[in-house]
Amino acid sequence: MGRRPRSLAGQVFALQVAVVVLLVAAAMLALLVEARRDNSAEARDRTIAVAQTFAHSPGIVTALKAPDPSAVLQPLTEAGRKAAGVDFIVVMDTKGIRYTHPRPELIGKRAVATIGPALAGHVYTESVNGPLGREVQAIVPVRDHVQVVALVAAGMKVEKVTGAVARQIPIILGAGAIALGLATSGTALVARRLRRQTHRLGAAEMNRMYEHHDAVLHAVREGVLIVGNDGRLLLANDEARRLLDLPLDAEGRRIPDLAGLDPGMEELLTSGRPATDEVHLAGSRLLAVNQRPTDRHGGPRGTVATLRDSTELRALSGRAENARERLRLLYDAGLGIGTTLDVVRTAEELTRIAVPRLADFGTVDLAEPVLHGDEPTSTDTEMRRTAVRGIRDDHPLYKIGQLNNFLPSTPQARAFATGRPELVPDLSAAPGWLAQDPERTRAIIDYGIHSLITVPLRARGVIMGMANFWRSEKPQPFEEDDLSLAEELVARAAVSIDNARRYTREHVMAVTLQRSLLPRALPEQSALDVAHRYLPAVSGVSGDWFDVIPLPGSRVALVVGDVVGHGLHAAATMGRLRTAVHNFSTLDLPPDEILHHLDDLVGRIDQEEAETTVDAGITGATCLYAIYDPVSRHCAMARAGHPPAALVRPDGSVSFPDLPAGPPLGLGGMPFETAELEVAEGTQFVLYTDGLIEDRTRDIDVGIELLRQALAGHPDRSPEESCQAVLDALLPDRPKDDVALLIARARAIPPDHVADWDVPFDPAAVAEMRAAVAEKVDDWGLSELAFATELLLSELITNAIRYGSAPVTVRLLYDRTLTCEVADSSSTSPHLRDAGALDEGGRGLFLVAQLAERWGTRYTSQGKVIWAELSLPRSDGSTEGAAWADVLDAEL
């Protein structure tokens, strides 16, 4: 074989023979596997059929109940086994003890079988080593009605496949022989084609071909070197001799013996390692060298190297690569700077793009007003270090957050004053920069930072700060090309920083407006212990709001709402709705009527905006309004498209009352419903907007469940602690929507601070009521208010009897104020009027208005209630409001 290697056609023929033999062997193996699998499946199916047939045959249950089941069943199983062609049919009890077996000596012994699945009522098949050898058996339950009373097992051996394989082997071998014949014919055709393609060249022709090859080798404009395995130069064409200045007798000499070779070139040629476009010096030339081994395709061991003069190309490609890198940097800056409307993050993005592609360190200093959204002035010379990034973290540059006031001699101050960038090639030779902070600047020089470019961040003619680029790793200083690239990079960043600054200003204004429209301090009241949170979204303010409104009779209204949309328009609309809620609350209406009035108001707002703006959309809002009465501990709630409130019971359980949702405000045409709840003292009301539970990454049901988990199990936690716990559990660091949260713990007024009377519908009853009220006020230790209370109630009761309808009731409520209430079944409301000097009536309500701190009327489903509040005495014995002497001296 070494002297006469096999021809290409012979190799192809050998490969084809090997492939045909493998295919024949694979086909036979596949037949054997398939036959064995089919035989196993047939055995399993037959045993299942036999076992089920015998288990369900009539009389088997009766035979099992016989005194000797084996005597009855053994003949039957043997007859069935022979008829079905299986090896055995075994009947066993539920403990696996055999009643029958082909070998009688095994009757009464435990069967080799897994009976658990069959006892559970299932048909179970398995392969076991039984008394008859390796068998496949099926175990089937025998049922008496629904109870499993016995088991039947049928099994047989799996025989080897012989018949099908024996019949198909000749076919396979015949197909293989045909394939070999075709392979032989194909090989002969390929051999003839190869001889035809080589044109039957002889030795002379082949010699001439090599001569032509040699001529081409020396004519190409690329050097070629062939080095033997022993390091000798075997061949060098004319171009290689010229590029390397090789002597005429270079061929045959060892590479280290050739004078004038660069050490790097010598090392490459002697090492024999592969190389691709490695650049080496050869005198004043830059050579691109490629080297490959020659024994990859059966040739002699050695290497072949090609040399190409790339001196001029290298210079051109270097400039082209710099231009490409510059364009790539600017392109990445367009994508990576200004991704957010945040001033600090935009500055950080500028340094992230510049380091290390332009500079080794990058810093950004911004004027202090810019960080707050304001426009800097020419007098704002102080700048705060906003962003720092470098190839290492141990640098001596100013840290983030430091406020710097650069001296007029520094490049930063000059660039800030003139608006033009500054290039400092050598910082150690810049006395103006060194004077800024001698100790720190000397540390910067010692650290290795040697060159600086400072560029003003300028947009719309306003300089907002400075971007500084520092070089330390590269020994070459910054050049003019670097300066122009830095200018373009900073110009793009300046626009983004200015946009972020203006957005920050607008955002601060919107947040300020919205916070001014929200309650600054909660009113004093005794019914609820209240805590609240309001968090504006990072993307802009919206129309979320909340309110706590004291109502007559120590009741308190809780309100939470959300206006659709973001921005100043939503905040302004929220302010209008909050003002409207306050005004409607003074009418003391039930929650559903309050929402009905708000719905009309939102509809009018939409109509006004549609008439003035072409593309005006629907305003839309949601709201939840609740009124809590600490006397009865009842809470009335209604909502308009708002998330349901949560109730935290005193035992720590959390529930969401089934409150009709109602349509959002502004749709119109749909009624609102009020739900009445009775709550225990200590119950917490949790009202919130959808920003608390909704998120793009989770469903609203998941948010409600998270809220439940955050509230549950902490009945003793204060509302303030509950607010913080809820926000920590549900909100990310930067919420995408506004969140308003209101948590109030219910209190109850003690029963001994409430007094009720039914007043007979007779003017003579007024005197009795005055006496009863005076006695009750004295019991409460409010004797100073007895006279005013008697006078006020006598006027209200007299009006109720004279102008109202029975029944008439009186209630005194002792809380932060003394509240007097007179109720009757009439819906006619009294009005305060200016009585003339000679008029006999019309002065009662005027007297009430003078005596009471506040008074008014509220309507109920049974009629109306006229109420008045008297201020409690101070610690010094005085009272707020009108003095009794002033009331008596007033002109009635």
Automatic annotation (TrEMBL):
It comes from the Bacteria. Residues 525-746 form the PPM-type phosphatase domain. InterPro entries: Bact_Sigma-Reg (IPR052016), GAF (IPR003018), GAF-like_dom_sf (IPR029016), HATPase_C_sf (IPR036890), HATPase_dom (IPR003594), PAS (IPR000014), PAS-like_dom_sf (IPR035965), PAS_4 (IPR013656). Keywords: ATP-binding, Cell membrane, Hydrolase, Kinase, Membrane, Nucleotide-binding, Phosphoprotein, Transferase, Transmembrane, Transmembrane helix, Two-component regulatory system. One of its GO terms (molecular function) is kinase activity. Residues 332-507 form the GAF domain. It is found in: Cell membrane. It is a multi-pass membrane protein. SMART domains: GAF, PP2C_SIG. The chain crosses the membrane at residues 12-33, 169-191. Its main location: membrane. PANTHER family: STAGE II SPORULATION PROTEIN E, STAGE II SPORULATION PROTEIN E-RELATED. This is Histidine kinase. It comes from Streptomyces gelaticus. The lineage of its organism: Bacteria, Bacillati, Actinomycetota, Actinomycetes, Kitasatosporales.
